[in-house]
Design the sequence.
């Protein structure tokens, strides 16, 4: 039983593409993490399916300072983008700060999305558009599956993916020149 990171990445990217964004930067998690690899590969595949250039990519470390430093580097290197895809909400918060320091406004100049829907995401300025996982469902299904295995060790292993949902808040807006 696991969380469907591929679907979550696709749904948030479809949201941005639907808003007209075509120039992206991705702050992935550390690529030695399985979930970071899944999210990064889903980014590449989704953009390819839409005929959009792969995003400018920089690897982060899941932390707010990591998101800040990654975004600062992208800005200092002169990269042009209308949307930031952060692999988690903490790095999105760091991106907010770096964009603000560079004189860019979220979402007027740059849309920002995160992942995980941490409790604080609704209280960012502006509130963050993010992907929300149902951890209660994950725990309940995992517990039920464990109980079945304890009752019957011959229980067939059946992989299950829990689909997340997109929480649209105020950090994304239609692309405009």
Sequence:
């Amino acid at each position: 039983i696991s969380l469907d990171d591929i679907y979550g990445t696709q749904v948030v990217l479809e949201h941005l593409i639907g808003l007209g964004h075509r120039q992206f930067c991705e702050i992935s998690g550390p690529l030695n993490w399985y979930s970071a690899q899944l999210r990064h590969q889903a980014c590449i595949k989704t953009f390819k399916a839409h005929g959009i250039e792969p995003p400018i990519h920089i690897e982060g470390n899941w932390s707010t300072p990591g998101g800040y430093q990654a975004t600062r580097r992208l800005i200092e290197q002169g990269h042009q983008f209308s949307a930031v895809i952060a692999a988690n909400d903490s790095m999105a918060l760091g991106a907010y700060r770096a964009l603000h320091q560079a004189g860019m406004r979220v979402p007027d100049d740059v849309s920002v999305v995160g992942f995980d829907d941490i409790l604080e995401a609704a209280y960012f300025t502006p509130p963050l558009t993010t992907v929300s996982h149902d951890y209660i469902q994950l725990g309940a299904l995992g517990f039920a599956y464990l109980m079945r295995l304890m009752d019957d060790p011959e229980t067939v292993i059946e992989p299950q993916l829990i689909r997340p949902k997109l929480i649209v808040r105020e950090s994304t807006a239609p692309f405009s020149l």
About this structure: The two ends are 43 Å apart (CA to CA).
